[in-house]
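Example for tutorial group B:
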């Protein structure tokens, strides 16, 4: 069972200040009037904890939008060197839905196959993660996918109190991060306040998926040819915004870039999207999802059918980023609930 302590706001600020100096600090910061982003910071006063969601998820700390995998030389002799980044950093202020996403990325890059991704693994080992509980808005539906109380992957987890934070110490690495900060055991009243926060959070979530998560694969497969996919595709630009902001999307492409001298170059990985026209293009040429309805349908199937079966729960954390960011206001849960309702009407 996690050790539960209390830290005041001034002491937490001291912990963050030390982290900003060494090993480094990545935390949510304000961008403009209403947007927030995880970024490397040197002044802990830049940390903004009042956010509901950042535009991009904190998976940037482990899977950058673009990263070098190896550098190679052709002259004077052929050789290649893997580029492994294991720079230590404290990732601070991660909400439960994003903790769940990181756990799912761990499964995809470390646990799913016999061989783990060395680039992701090096970054993952180097990061100390501090989670913090949040209050949702109208886009959140974490209770429908079971991520609202996620702690997995965090080294420390904070719950806001009136005068400080309840601190759950989850790993030795988390305890080491606290250093000599003045801590005390939580009183029964402070434990009750933490429980009240979590209950208020659950009560505030009104967006729902209208069925149990384990029923979704069968429902979707029965509705494979539903007209809802074409109707949704008529509104979709195939811009890839939804997959770009998604904390659990992990598709990427790899390309080689030569130096102007042609004596060497680098191999780089960059985020890709199943919503792009050429994503499923292969030699021939043949495109397995050349029509927009096929790409739209694939997105829902990927989150709630294919990986739901393989992983054991939806590959969606209920963060609401895709719906909030969609340029044509396509609602992920709204479309899913339309499919669920159609299946209910047509069930034998």
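The residue assignment follows.
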């Amino acid at each position: 069972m996690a050790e539960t302590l209390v830290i005041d706001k001034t002491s937490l600020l001291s912990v963050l200040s030390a982290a900003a100096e060494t090993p480094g600090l990545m935390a949510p910061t304000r961008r403009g009037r209403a947007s927030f982003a995880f970024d490397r910071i040197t002044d802990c006063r830049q940390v903004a904890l009042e956010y509901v969601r950042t535009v991009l998820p904190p998976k940037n700390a482990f899977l950058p939008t673009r990263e070098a995998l190896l550098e190679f030389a052709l002259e004077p002799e052929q050789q290649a060197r893997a580029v492994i980044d294991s720079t230590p950093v404290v990732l601070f202020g991660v909400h439960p839905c994003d903790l769940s996403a990181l756990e799912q990325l761990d499964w995809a890059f470390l646990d799913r196959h016999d061989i783990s991704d060395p680039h992701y693994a090096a970054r993952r080992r180097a990061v100390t993660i501090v989670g913090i509980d949040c209050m949702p808005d109208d886009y959140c539906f974490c209770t429908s996918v079971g991520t609202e109380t996620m702690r997995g992957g965090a080294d420390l987890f904070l719950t806001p109190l009136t005068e400080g934070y309840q601190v759950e110490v989850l790993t030795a690495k988390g305890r080491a991060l606290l250093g000599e900060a003045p801590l005390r055991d939580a009183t029964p009243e402070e434990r009750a306040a933490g429980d009240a926060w979590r209950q208020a959070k659950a009560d505030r979530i009104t967006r729902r998926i209208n069925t149990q998560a384990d029923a979704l694969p069968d429902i979707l497969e029965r509705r494979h040819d539903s007209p809802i996919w074409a109707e949704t595709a008529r509104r979709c630009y195939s811009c890839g915004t939804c997959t770009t902001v998604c904390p659990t999307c992990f598709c990427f492409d790899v390309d080689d870039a030569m130096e102007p001298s042609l004596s060497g170059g680098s191999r780089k990985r960059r985020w890709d999207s199943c919503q792009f026209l050429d994503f499923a293009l292969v030699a021939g040429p043949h495109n397995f999802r050349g029509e927009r309805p096929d790409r739209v349908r694939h997105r829902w199937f990927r989150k709630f059918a294919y990986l739901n079966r393989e992983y054991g729960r939806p590959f969606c954390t209920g963060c609401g980023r895709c719906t909030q960011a969609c340029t044509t206001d396509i609602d992920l849960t709204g479309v899913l609930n339309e499919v669920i309702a159609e299946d209910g009407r047509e069930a034998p």
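The longest helix spans residues 292-311. Compare this with the pattern of hydrophobic and polar residues in the output above.
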